[in-house]
Amino acid sequence: MIGIKCYFIVKGYTKGEALVSKEPISFWGDFDPKTGCIINKTNSLYNQNVKGKILIFPYGRGSSTSSAIFLEAVRLGNAPAAIINIKTEPILAVGAILAEKLYNITIPIAYTRETDPTKIFKTGDHIEIDGFNNIIRKLN
């Protein structure tokens, strides 16, 4: 079992299947909140659905609207179960914080600083997110 220490912006606990992109993702323009799919044809996750997955990507490619798009995905039930980055952009974090406040839905968001999670995890890995102990574990 592989485990990495991380820092949490939104703490929580979940398990799920990883969906990994080596490219940055912008929730504004790369993602459709109505379907939960990545819609940027240049992203390796094009047409993949993030709903209920542990979404791992290096960092966000931002627009100030990303938090609103993320929040809309939460409202519609199409958001990822958790997000792991090397560096999490504040705009994305705002979406997860508001999801907790407005909808009582916790979507853990972690960043790893010292370790690139896109090199440790691959799509299909089963992952445990433990924001209360600041660790992410690969279960398979």
Features:
140 residues; Glucose Oxidase, domain 1; two-stranded antiparallel ribbon; 3 helices; 10 strands
Number of strands: 10
Q: So what's the CATH class?
A: Alpha Beta
Q: Helix-strand pattern, N to C?
A: EEEEEEHEHEHEE
Under the CATH scheme, the architecture is 3-Layer(bba) Sandwich
| Count of individual helical segments | 3
Unreliable stretches (pLDDT < 50, length at least 5) are none
Strand content: 25-35%
Report the sheet with the most strands, covering strand number, pairing sense and barrel closure. 8 strands, mixed
Calculate the terminal CA-CA distance, rounded to whole Å: 7 Å
- Strand numbers in spatial order across the main sheet: 1-10-9-3-6-7-8-2
Query: What structural class do helix, strand and pairing data support?
Result: alpha/beta
Oligomer description: single chain
Radius of gyration: 13 Å
Shape: globular
Structure notes:
- Helix 1 runs parallel beside helix 2.
- With 140 residues, the chain is an alpha/beta fold.
- The termini are close together.
- The longest helix is centred in the last third of the chain and has 14 residues.
- The strands form 2 sheets. It has an 8-stranded mixed beta sheet. A two-stranded antiparallel ribbon has the order 4-5.
- The model has no long low-confidence stretch (mean pLDDT 94).
- It is built from 3 helices and 10 strands, in the order ββββββαβαβαββ.
- The protein has one domain: Glucose Oxidase, domain 1 (3-Layer(bba) Sandwich), CATH 3.50.30.10.
